[in-house]
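Sample intake sheet
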Amino acid sequence: MNVVTNNTEQCQQALNALLEVIDPEIGLNVVDLGLIYQVDFDDQEKKIFCTMTLTTQFCPMGDSITQAAEEVLHSTFPNYHIALELSFNPPWNAQMISPEGREFLNER
């Protein structure tokens, strides 16, 4: 999992919060699934720019997952505006799952 960021410390805080967002069909969080591509911070404008993906463009839970990600980021950084963008470039694949995610899925 290689999340691009302009602020490593704040990004880690954001990723820790995003661990709470679970893909309900898979049962794994969006971070360990490798769905988070980028988290950038504009402290002057108080904005967070988050780029993420879904396991498929046709994910039936896509709206729920992205809404939950926005809500978690907003609750973690209440003074920031959250700009969440979905991207399917590069398309998600199973190689993006973290070692912790693979272990979780193998235990199921």
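Comment: The mean pLDDT is 95. The first strand starts at residue 4 and ends at 5.
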